[in-house]
């Protein structure tokens, strides 16, 4: 298989040969026409937003479920569950309410209280130039609204699936955790052991981890029952989102004791082996947290060790969600490299500090050769890290051939959506139509959804032999192509997107 660099070099040679041929007038292709239309809209905010809302936008590969649902829904959940809200911190908790709390139901009658909660639980109205940093406000929201999410995972998934479908996306990979108390208890009973094999075996002994896996699967079943009820799946009035392709990446909090991190990772890897709804693992919480910094190398070795034992479970990691203002100089030199080389990450999230990494250019070339995609939530990067425009490394990655996939991160908290990130890609990162199309395709092709790809190879968007003779996204693929689309959820999603491109480009 050609490496990414070799493919780019070959493309350059072909382009030079084509340029040497005398030009002749020919009709513009549909892609050329739509590309020209995008260029006319670059200075028209409303027109650009309409254009990109309709544009087929692949998959969302970096999406935290608890942070993706709208803040209005979170407040509604808090009211329906009878929660209490602290008058000072505005954090939700279970009743009974104390003298320092108010019933969440007060948000129904007190507009000022409602507005205060909305702002505390999201980036609504946040002043990036105020005394509190966007980083601190953003991450603090999760502890404030967390209790409101406990009983509504299926409702949240339903809302987020409908949003993704309305945004003309074709796949969602969302992050979730399971059985936190049980995992912590198991970790405490085993304790930490630097010999990962011994620690893993102790967690498996007596079926201890198997019980947590079974409980996690039961939780997932319950969430999907709630999801189906919310969307009226199986009824004549079922939402189209009932059949929207969704998979989970199991998220592991990194700012805690190492035995808890390991136990959670083990649960995520086990789930990925036995439950097709779980396809990957990820580490979450602020990368600049003191514990996360102290144990970063340890965490990478844990992931790498477990991946050798559970190759079916895929790896995507938050890495490089840092700036020099957040961490000591030594901690900004190696996070992305260790995620790729030690943990074996196939995708990384954020990757903003890459130019501070030791031998950054070599690392980028390695990522391109390995086809490591960077999940790029431009809105989130601007709000949390205050990195945007020319300071953002998106175009730097692209110069090395590193694949990019735009993502939302926590659109509910950010008060944003995937269209806004595509708008930023055009207005701040100066992306062309063909680059947007490449990004959109990559965000599906690098998804961990099961099945063979429609494409010949990673980031090589030519159809496989079975579909090479068929019109991409057409209504009548060949029998061999039909079989691929039947057998592969990934190829089916990619074909649906190609059909959407055909319609969009007219």
In short:
Residues 1-25 form the signal peptide. With 506 residues, the chain is of the alpha/beta class.
Would you give an account of this structure?
By secondary structure, the protein is α/β, with parallel strands linked by helices. The two termini are 34 Å apart. Helix 15 (335-341) links the parallel strand 8 (314-319) and strand 9. The protein has an 8-stranded parallel sheet. Helices cover 51% and strands 12% of the residues. The radius of gyration is 23 Å and the shape is globular. The chain has 3 domains: 59-65 and 151-445, TIM Barrel (Alpha-Beta Barrel); 74-138, no CATH class; 451-506, no CATH class. It has 23 helices and 13 strands. This is adenosine deaminase. One of its GO terms (cellular component) is cytosol. Its EC number is 3.5.4.4. Residues 312-450 form the Adenosine deaminase domain. Residues 1-25 form the signal peptide.
Summarize the helices and strands and which ones pair or pack.
Layout lengths: L3 H17 L9 H12 L3 H10 L4 E6 H4 L2 H10 L3 E3 L5 E2 L7 E3 L7 H10 L13 H16 L3 H14 L4 E6 L3 H11 L5 H9 L3 H23 L15 E8 L4 H17 L3 E7 L5 H5 L1 H14 L4 E6 L15 H7 L5 E4 L9 H11 L2 E4 L1 H8 L8 H6 L4 E3 L4 H4 L3 H10 L5 H13 L9 E3 L2 E4 L15 H9 L1 H17 L1
Parallel strand pairs: 1-5, 5-6, 6-7, 7-8, 8-9, 9-10, 10-11
Antiparallel strand pairs: 2-3, 2-4, 12-13
